[in-house]
Design brief:
Helices cover 45% and strands 17% of the residues. With 386 residues, the chain is an alpha/beta fold.
Length: 386
């Protein structure tokens, strides 16, 4: 099911169906008409961006973030910097520094959880303890597995899994920048066959391209190849993708990591699907079949188009001196599932193990940084042992 919101005024700005089929939603869809109150827990880049768009679409939004965000919004307001100009969200958006404070401001119709994967469990428990009960929770993360932690806390019926394919950054507290317009938000209910209508309705008028999917596991696994590309290797070596893909051994490592994702998905019975703005199936088909030389060009092109010169998230985390990362829900998830299913995953294992050691500072980054031949040799060794 595809939902295109806010871009086709001829039919009330809202329609849904498969890519080649549009079904009109009735003009008086009750949930869409309602004034919604939405709380967003973990208001960094993603939470701030979605919150800003929802506020601009007339929803009442409360961001729960860190104290610098709360202070910035209170003193200067909240700004969205988009490719076509900067917009101020105005009165419809406020920020607080704890879930409890948000809950004291009154009931909500919808919650969004937009922390990083490794914070999902704690933030979900905080939401539950603070009394945010009974409403749907849209969890927008990358990687695989944090959705199960959310389901454990909120229950299958309340969780809606989200996958965002738009890149966003936080240049300073209270300001979020949308890097590129291509992309959107994929949604899938955690309970099979449940109606995502109330969540979809929240995005009416937001200008976000929203598409719903029947299988939340498909949605999360399909985003994983996009997160792995030009990310883990770039972090280990502190190098940009074009330098990495000049080394055939590293192209082989990258492609092998993606092939392992495909093997795990095949065995799990999870179908890869296209995401808003990203033909994931074609990309995987090409990458998994092309010879190394062809893949180097394809990878260079797709990573350059996707990242637009931005430093990938894991490398940025190491540069910022973070002690934890999402790699456990990325390469680590492939290794865990490969282990359960008896599928060898040496490429993801190598990258996951090195990155865990780098983030926990058990290894010096200088051991790997700028040394592609060292990682390529390690990969040859790991492949031989597998
Ligand atoms: N940025 C993108 O372009 C993008 C695009 C698609 C998907 N994603 C995915 O979306 C998720 C969120 O990414 P992001 O880039 O928005 O991360 P982010 O900018 O780090 O935002 C998360 C925010 O949540 C805060 N936080 C953590 N626990 C909290 C709590 N209990 N209460 C209140 N605030 C809390 C964090 O503060 P501290 O840092 O102080 O802990 C941080 O400010 C990740 O899984 C990411 O991979 C990101």
């Amino acid at each position: 099911v595809a939902v295109q919101i806010g871009s086709a005024p001829g039919w009330n700005g809202l329609g849904w169906g498969h890519d080649d089929e549009v079904v009109l939603v009735p003009a008086h869809w009750p949930q869409a008409e309602m004034m919604m109150r939405i709380v967003i827990v973990g208001a960094g880049a993603v939470g701030g961006f979605i919150g800003g768009r929802l506020a601009l679409a007339g929803k009442e939004v409360v961001l729960v973030g860190r104290p610098p965000l709360e202070q910035a919004v209170r003193t200067r307001g909240f700004r969205l910097v988009e490719p076509n100009g900067t917009r101020h969200t105005g009165q419809g958006l406020t920020a607080v520094a704890s879930v409890a404070e948000a809950v004291r401001s009154g009931p909500f119709d919808l919650a969004l959880l937009t922390v990083r994967t490794y914070d999902v469990r704690d933030a979900a428990l905080e939401m539950d303890k603070s009394g945010l009960k009974g409403i749907p929770v849209l969890c927008v993360q990358n990687g695989v597995g944090s959705e199960d932690e959310a389901i454990e806390v909120f229950g299958q019926q309340r969780v809606v899994v989200g996958s965002l394919t738009l890149p966003v950054t936080v240049p300073q507290p209270g300001v979020v920048r949308l890097v590129r317009e291509r992309g959107g938000l994929g949604l899938a209910t955690a309970a099979v066959g449940a109606d995502p209508g109330a969540v979809v309705a929240a995005f009416m008028g937001s200008g976000l391209r929203v598409r719903t999917y029947p299988d939340f596991r498909s949605l999360r696994w399909s985003k994983l190849p996009l997160n792995l590309l030009g990310n883990s290797i770039s972090a280990v070596l502190d190098m940009g993708p074009s330098d990495i893909y000049a080394h055939p051994g590293l192209v082989d490592l990258e492609v092998s990591a993606l092939r392992e994702v495909r093997s795990v998905c095949n065995r799990l019975g999870v179908r890869l699907v296209d995401l808003p703005g990203y033909p994931v199936r074609a990309l995987m088909w090409l990458v998994c079949r092309a010879p190394t030389a062809g893949n180097a060009a394809l990878l260079k092109w797709s990573v350059a188009a996707g990242r637009r010169g931005r430093v990938a998230s894991l490398r940025a985390g190491l540069k910022d001196g973070r002690l934890t990362s999402e790699v456990g829900h990325m390469n680590g998830a492939v290794v865990r599932w490969g282990g359960h299913l008896g599928i060898p995953t040496p490429a993801n294992r190598l990258l996951w193990e090195v990155l865990v050691e780098l983030f926990s500072q058990k290894q010096q980054w200088t051991h790997w940084a700028g040394r592609p031949e060292r990682l390529a040799a390690e990969w040859t060794r790991a492949k031989t042992l597998a």
